[in-house]
Amino acid sequence: MQDADKGDSAEIDGRDLRIGIVQARFNAALTDKLAQSCLEELKRLGVHERHIRHVTVPGALEVPLALNALAESDDFDALVALGCIIRGETYHFELVANESGAGVTRVSLDHHVPIANAILTVENEAQAWARAEDKGRDAARVAIEMANLLEDLT
Questions:
Q1: Closest CA to 23 of 5, 7, 37, 13
Q2: Residue 3 domain-assigned?
Q3: I want to staple 120 with a disulfide (CB 3.0 to 4.6 A). Which of 20, 74, 84, 129 is the partner?
Q4: What is the pLDDT of residues 92-106, one digit of tens each?
Q5: One of 48, 92, 111, 112 is an active-site residue; which one?
Q6: Considering the entire predicted model, what is its pTM?
Q7: Active site residue 54
């Protein structure tokens, strides 16, 4: 195999990439933090602001539908899903976490577009705050890296 795994040392270059972001508004303070760190990292890695489309939806269950609409446009090299699901006292947490995750994966595979899934699934708000900044930044990096990888593979 000629291409070695470059791990964290690989240069992540977002120049000329077009990225779509779908952000759930439920738990807005947390998802705003995810979006802020994601957008900052995209720009830091060379994605021009005019090549970023950022839309919001009510909650995590609506994220896959908006991702699907963006993917169908063929205007994006990669997409990012942002949201925050905090465990409550009912089964609703599992339902939302499982269905939103499955929907994100389905859109990615159906449209052959990379999607960085940064829909946090946490036990409590403290866990969400501890992860929001890093996971937003990670989502930007994953989106760029996967867009570049798919370009190289096709």
A1: 37
A2: no
A3: 84
A4: 999 999 999 999 999
A5: 92
A6: 0.92
A7: no
